[in-house]
Structures are given as structure tokens and as C-alpha cells.
Amino acid sequence: MITKHNHAESCNHHHHSGHHHGIESHLHDDVLVCSGKRDIIGDLETIKLNLVGEVKILANWIQETGGIIGHVKALVERDFPVTMISTTGDDVTIKEMTGSTVKVSVVAIVFNMNAQRLECRIASLFDALQKQTDL
Length: 135
Description:
This protein is an alpha+beta fold. It has helices at 44-64, 115-134, and strands spanning 23-28, 31-41, 68-78, 82-87, 92-97, 101-111.
């Protein structure tokens, strides 16, 4: 697994302990597989719409920097609504709770690409997605 990152490259996102939090890369033969997950707070439909644009931007960036795309995909998940069933010994109460956290995963399977640059770009995608959602 490749987790070290050279910060000499332009990288304007949050990182922890010398690597991109939640983003991993590994090589399989000549194929680089880079994947990341982040919780984004916001409206589900807005996140999905903005993610479509961000995936297109990522694909263009990969091609413009000389990479060859095998596959780029994103997954959007929600754990809500959650139903809580509780009792204090008498009646049973059922309460449905909603939330605004959406789990977003991105996987890029590419050829001819630097792992650290791709990790940085995916981290930037997540940062941009959260900023767009905050508007």
C-alpha cells in the first residue's frame, strides 16, 4: 500500500500523519488503484449532482496529466432514516430519525499515473464537494 505523500506538490486539502486521511493506493501489476471515502454533510440530491461534476473533472484531470482511465466510479450511501425502538419498561416508543451525513466513496483505476498526485486530487475532490454542498 502506498501511503506516503510528497507535499512539494500543490496539495490544498486536509491531511493527517503524512498521508491522505481515508485515501489509499496500491499497485497491481501496472495498474494503480486509488480509493477514498469521506462523510459529506448536506442534502443528498445536491451531493449527488455535485459529485457528477467532480467525477467528470477528475476524469479530465487524469487524461490531461497523461493517465489512462481504466475505471472511475463513485458511490453515495446514507444510513438514514434510522428507526429507534425503545422502552422504559412500560410502553414501547418508535422514533424515526433523519440525518444529513452522506458517505461518499471514489475509486480510480488508472494506468500511467503517480499515486501521490492521484491521492491528492481525490482528496481535493472531497474538499470541493463539501464546499459546494455548504453553499
